Amino acid sequence: MTVAELMDLLRYLPPETRVLVEGYETGYDDMVELRPLEVFRYRNAQAWDGEYQVKNEHSGQESKTVSAVAILGRRGHLRQS
């Protein structure tokens, strides 16, 4: 989804509508941050992996990155290794 697509969906909602993200294991948390990222599509993603990954020393030079933004929740950092 792009920013334009998200804006198009949000414009029909009342301005006071709360924006939530998935909680650490169950339930939902408030959105607390937008984090800009440079990511590439992870072609060998397993069921537990995300479709996109941040480029690092293991991703190889052939991995073309794209600009993205992640919507982060209050406890989303607990998912990171």
Order of helices and strands: HEEEE
Largest sheet: 4 strands, antiparallel
Q: How many angstroms separate the termini?
A: 25 Å
**Beta-strand residue fraction:** 25-35%
User: What Rg do the Cα atoms give?
Assistant: 15 Å
Task: State the helical fraction.
Answer: under 10%
Shape: globular
Mean pLDDT: 84
Tally of helical segments: 1
User: How many β-strands, per DSSP?
Assistant: 4
Estimate nothing, just give the exact number of structural domains.
Answer: 1
Poorly predicted tracts of residues: none
Question: In terms of structural class, how would the helical and strand content be classed?
Answer: mainly beta
Question: In words, what does this structure look like?
Answer:
By secondary structure, this protein is mainly beta. It has one domain. Helix content is 10%, strand content 35%. The chain has 1 helix and 4 strands. It has one helix at 3-10; strands at 20-22, 28-41, 52-54, 66-73. Strands 1, 2, 3 and 4 form a 4-stranded antiparallel sheet that branches. It is globular, with a radius of gyration of 15 Å. The model has no long low-confidence stretch (mean pLDDT 84).
